[in-house]
Amino acid sequence: MATVLEQTTEIPAFNFIGFIHEGVPCTRANLAECVEFYTKVLGLKLLPRPKALDDMVPGAWLGDADNTVQFHLIAKDDEYNPGADARMTPAGRHTAWMVRDIDAFKARMRALAVKYEETSALIGGAQVFVKDPAGHTWEFQQPAKR
Predict the structure, then answer these.
(1) How confident is the model at residue 7 (pLDDT cuts 50, 70, 90)?
(2) Residue 146: what pLDDT?
């Protein structure tokens, strides 16, 4: 059986044109706690959510002031959730977000007493990691200084 890389036929190309949202599973029990984390800690706002989704599965849509970043919380108890005691790790499944000023981000985490971990040894710039109440690791970086 040939692997994808060994195929002899040409594979059609496509282009990414942008980011839509990050779907984040949580449980029904920690949905409110997760909404509080994303609104208070990350400063996101609640967005309207289609009624059809509300009837199907609880959840919340959140976005930043410019609507360039969106998190869609999906409260389904039968989906994978790492759990509140999951280890915060850059080596596991995570998503990285670009922020304008990483020092301002760290100052916000300190002001809210949110635990974070930081490294600059991996890519030559600061990488800051936080964990949400469902146990998901999130990475934040700022653009490289020129």
Answers:
(1) low
(2) 66
The pLDDT tens digits for 8-61 are 678 878 887 778 899 999 999 999 999 999 999 999 999 999 888 888 899 999
The alpha carbon dihedral of 98, 92, 39, 127 has a sign of negative
Beta strand pairing call for 70-75 and 22-26:
parallel
CA pair distance 116, 126, nearest whole angstrom: 12
**Other beta carbons less than 10 A from residue 68's beta carbon:** 10
pTM: 0.81
CA gap 26, 38 in Å, rounded: 12
Separation of alpha carbons 39 and 34, rounded Å: 9
Nearest to 139 by CA among 109, 110, 111: 109
